[in-house]
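We close this part of the discussion by returning to an individual protein. Part of our work consisted of pairing the sequence of a single chain with a tokenised description of its backbone. The amino acid sequence and the backbone structure tokens for this protein are reproduced below.
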Amino acid sequence: RDPAAADGVLQRLAERRRDDPKAWLALARWHRNRDLDRADEAIQKALKLAPDDADILFGAFDLALARENLDEAERIATHARGLFASDERVYRGLAMVALQRRDLAAAEQILRDGVSALPNTAPLLLMLADALLQLNKLDDVEQTISWIADLYGTSSPAVGLLQARLMIARQQWPQARQRLEQIRPLAAGISQLTRQIDLCLAQCLENLEEFDEQLDVSRRMLNDDPTSLIARVGAAVALAAAGLPDLI
């Protein structure tokens, strides 16, 4: 709970083991969400020592994506694909670049290639289902979800969220609401997944004209993230629909 002390420990580790690429990778990961310039400096030292190490390459890829340097991210992922064709991170990385470029068709093809090369790989199947949802290929989404459920069961909240999102795409609001309320307790402690569930739940409640409950969900999201614009808009919509515009 002392970030400054942790920073100092990792910096000394890298300095004392300056020939160990993993030490520089650890330092880069520490700075990833704090100081991108320092993270880049550390990952470059790691790459110089081990240019073909998988973890270091994907660390460099993640950093390039964080800096929105899509050309560099694509170059690293393509290089990694030549070295580690059986690593699912290759396909997810290339698909992430395509999604950042808003090229959904390219992302779909990359993920289909990945699933073909590495069948039954949950992260690729989940990402493919998400891309297909964005492309509104709902029958393909349903098939992909069924594939995932057959492999890993339906108890995963990530699978449940995809099922609910498919129901939302089909405007099956009561069914989607029920599924989201079922899986939310299963996602406790997974903040990003909980946030996505609440966003979808607020959308369902708005369409069901359950504005009091929509307001509760929106306020819950705001408690977790006071900067959330979507949550603020949801709360405003609910208050306006409830005839309480003065509270917006």
